[in-house]
Amino acid sequence: MPQWLNLEYINFIMKIEFFGSSIIGSNTFQPEKPKSFYDLILDHFNATSLNFMIAQCSEERILYNLKKTSEIDIAIIFHSTPQFIYFPNFTRDFTVMNDHEIDDWNSRQHFLDYVDAFKQNKKDIVTNFSVPTESVDVSIIKDFMKLHFNKDVNRSRFHGALSLIGDYVYAKKIPAIHVIHDHIPGWFNFKSGVVDTDIWNIEKEFSESFNKSVNGISEEGNSLIFNKIISLIQRI
């Protein structure tokens, strides 16, 4: 029986780790906005989470952060898509772009920050909010994008990371919720955990401006996802 289900551990602080993109945004840094399902889940279980939203989070980053997080009682994984490229030592990931889009990338300079703490590969350093960051010359990344990425290669990397995530939570016996979408190939099956195919559809149906919501989902949508996750946790 997991510790968090045992009354002996009444003062036990759960570590519910969320992995994914902007869908797991929190009002921690924007308290004037309504709480997201991320906040509601942590409040409901009196839990903590080291992990936080990573813009355009790739499947490879999910794998990396999963393995770098020391203690996990439940992993709630919002699986990514093949279009997102892993930028290991930066604050965020990006989409696959054609050469024209890469050449116009100067307008994105302010989005690109280097995190030396990520390069050091330390345990439990999985977000940039508590470590220094620094800007880099965007031309370096533009050349890298043109020379080293294409859509088919990134799809293969996505499939590899997806498979390793499934193997990792299975081997480590980590209770997991896999929130998936149509990008998961038909030949793939998870070895453990519960699988959800509804939450990404709720996110689409109840999308809202990030000016109003910390995760781009309305209050109603966040409430629906909160209740859905509660029901999924009960099935673990």
Rounded mean pLDDT is: 89
How many helices in DSSP terms? 8
Helix share, percent: 25-40%
What CATH calls the topology is: Rossmann fold
Large-scale geometry: globular
Query: What is the string of SSEs from the N terminus onward?
Result: EHHEEEHEHEHHEEHH
Q: Could you give the order of strands across the largest sheet?
A: 1-2-7-8
Question: Could you walk me through the main structural features you see in this protein, from its secondary elements to its overall organization?
Answer:
This protein is an alpha/beta fold and 236 residues long. It has helices at 37-44, 59-68, 99-103, 116-119, 138-148, 151-171, 199-205, 219-233; strands at 16-19, 74-78, 84-85, 94-95, 113-114, 134-135, 176-179, 194-196. It has a four-stranded parallel sheet with strand order 1-2-7-8, with helices on both faces. It is globular and about 50 Å long. The mean pLDDT is 89.
